[in-house]
Specification:
Layout: E1 8-9, E2 30-43, E3 51-58, E4 64-67, E5 71-72, E6 78-80, E7 84-91, E8 103-109, E9 117-124, E10 134-140, E11 150-156, E12 163-168, H1 179-329, H2 331-334, H3 338-375
Parallel strand pairs: 10-12
Antiparallel strand pairs: 1-10, 2-6, 2-7, 2-11, 3-4, 3-5, 3-8, 8-9, 10-11, 11-12
Helix pairs in contact: 1-3
Keywords: Coiled coil
Protein name: C2 NT-type domain-containing protein
Region (Disordered): 152-183
Length: 376
């Protein structure tokens, strides 16, 4: 009967750098989980077992899927420093969705022949798929000849979890009846090992492809995130510009309304001023027309006066001429008429002064007419 002792513990990040598990999907019902077994140890190994190795064998197919390196036994204890990692398919019920049994044997042997088998332990890996913490297992090895031998180890399934497993088994004798069967068994084991490494290589290639796909997806996602961030930034900038345009439009409309009202008031004021100025100009024109009419009438009167004065001057000139002729003819009479001549000369001088005054009046009248013409 197997003895199981599970100790839960937190994951050791320093030793668990390669403990991550990759889950693989397929078209069938189930999942592929990556298990990692490390810190394997065998205790109470009997004498005669110099070097041992650990193999992972499928109970269903009987094929060896993974092996460890051979390790020397010291003082009845054999400890493997390397770890075993393998992706193992765990089936799932179609209707019940429960995990089916996934039986694998942990085989401890010399690795050269069937007679070199120290013992094995059968594990149902489905029991450890959903575990989140490492577990220390101590199980006795079956197919033993005498005393019990313990094997300890650690495994990691599906998620970044450590599973420490230990197993126990007793010794058996390593013997060979003949070299030929041993050679055939060695060849079979080597073939199984080649197949196992081939499957391991396929699994690694599959993991590599999945990692590449995930890397590409991550890059695409990063690019999409950058584009999305840029789009959000543009959207925010457009929103800000739109808000600024709205504010500018509102301010412009407000200014136009205020300016429009001010312009209307200014136009009304200018219209009133123009009306007043037009009224003043009309009144001024009427006054100027009246003054012009009066001035024209005055000019007509002055012209008549001037004509009369000219006629008077001409008459006086004729009279003076006649008087001069009479004075020459009556030279003898001039002495007697000296006073009359003096009177005539005085009268002539007054007439000359009157003529000069008429000229001055004509000049003043001309100046007045020119001034009035310039005003109009």
């Amino acid at each position: 009967m197997k003895k199981l002792n599970i100790e839960q513990r937190e994951e050791n990040k320093e030793k668990g750098g390669d403990v991550q598990v990759y889950r693989h999907r397929s078209n069938s019902f189930g999942e592929k989980h990556k298990f990692k077994f490390s810190n394997l140890q065998a205790f109470k190994v009997p004498r005669g077992w110099d070097k041992l190795l650990v193999s992972i064998v499928s109970v269903e197919t009987g094929k060896t899927i993974a092996k460890s390196s051979k390790t020397v036994v010291h003082g009845g204890t054999c400890q493997w420093t390397d770890s075993i990692s393998e992706s193992i398919w765990v089936s799932q019920g179609v209707t019940s969705k429960e995990l089916e049994e996934c039986l694998y044997k942990i085989v401890v042997s010399m690795g050269s022949s069937r007679s070199g088998l120290l013992g094995d332990v059968v594990l149902n890996l489905s029991d450890y798929v959903h575990s989140r913490d490492s577990a220390l297992l101590s199980l006795p090895l079956e197919r033993v000849a005498s005393s019990s031998t313990n094997l300890a180890g650690t495994g990691y399934p599906d998620v970044p979890v450590n599973r420490d497993r230990s197993f126990s088994a007793s010794d058996s004798h390593h013997s060979s009846d003949s070299d030929l069967p041993a050679a055939e068994e060695t060849i079979d084991e080597l073939r199984d090992e080649v197949k196992m490494w081939g499957r391991h290589s396929q699994n690694l290639n599959l993991d590599l492809e999945i990692l590449k796909e995930n890397s590409l997806k991550s890059k695409h996602q990063a690019n999409h995130d950058v584009e999305l961030f840029a789009a959000f930034s543009k959207r925010d900038s457009f929103k800000q510009e739109l808000e600024q345009l709205k504010l500018s439009l509102e301010e412009s409309m407000t200014k136009q309304t205020v300016n429009g009202s001010a312009k209307i008031e200014e136009i009304i004021r200018l219209k009133e001023e123009l009306g007043d100025e037009l009224k003043f100009l009309r009144e001024s024109n009427a006054n100027l027309s009246l003054q012009l009419k009066k001035t024209q009438e005055s000019n007509i009167e002055l012209i008549a006066i001037l004509q009369e004065l000219e006629e008077t001057v001409e008459k006086q000139g004729m009279e003076i001429t006649n008087l001069s002729e009479q004075a020459q003819a009556n030279d003898s009479v001039s002495r007697s008429n000296g006073r009359l001549l003096l009177d005539l000369e005085a009268e002539w001088a007054s007439k000359l002064s009157m003529k000069e005054e008429i000229k001055k009046l004509e000049e003043k009248l001309s100046v007045v007419l020119q001034t009035q013409v310039l005003k109009y």
